[in-house]
Amino acid sequence: MLEKRKIEVYALGQHIAMSAHKARRVIDQIRGRSYEETLIILELMPYRACCPIFKLVYSAVANASYNLGSNEANLIISKAEVNEGTTVKKFKPRARGRSYPIKRPTCHITIVVKDMSLTEYVEKNFLQWLRERLKKPKRLKKPKWKKKNKYTDLTYHDIYSNGGVWDKK
């Protein structure tokens, strides 16, 4: 059998106080890059969204090194997504006794890190498993329509006697 081995680890940040659009413009720059390159990009970008994303990337890499025992040089960011979270709504008092609504959007950020060395290991094992599987001859099964009892008993249902349309009042 093929050994199932985990090659991806993620970190999730929820209810981060910023707009999803502002976080997406930073996330789009780091998606698919290596860990070292991502850190350099996040340190040099002038956006406020870089700080929580930097912490999440660092957390995802720490999870990968702890859970998988992988090296930081082999890690890439395979998936990074930003979803909208809840909106915090407040009311600010204004002139003449009126109120002005204030909406503070939040977002959920997910960073998925993949270990490329483990990916190659799993692909080699999968190819080896596939070669062994193709060498073994398959037993042919009879189709379902070729069974011994070809004819089955049919029962007749009458709509008047079996609670059909006319029983309802």
In a nutshell, what does this entry contain?
This protein is α+β, with helices and mostly antiparallel strands and 169 residues long.
Offer a few descriptive terms:
alpha+beta, Ribosomal Protein L22, Chain A, structural constituent of ribosome, Ribosomal_uL22
Write up what this structure looks like.
- It is a single chain.
- The protein is elongated, with a radius of gyration of 29 Å.
- It has a 3-stranded antiparallel β-sheet with strand order 1-3-2.
- 17% of the residues are buried.
- It has helices at 20-30, 35-44, 50-67, 116-135, and strands at residues 8-16, 75-93, 99-115.
- It has one domain (8-126): Ribosomal protein L22/L17 (Ribosomal Protein L22, Chain A, Alpha-Beta Complex).
- A hairpin with a 5-residue loop joins strand 2 and strand 3 (99-115).
- By secondary structure, the chain is an alpha+beta fold.
- The protein contains 4 helices and 3 strands.
- The model has no long low-confidence stretch (mean pLDDT 82).
How does the SSE layout of this entry go?
Elements: E1 8-16, H1 20-30, H2 35-44, H3 50-67, E2 75-93, E3 99-115, H4 116-135
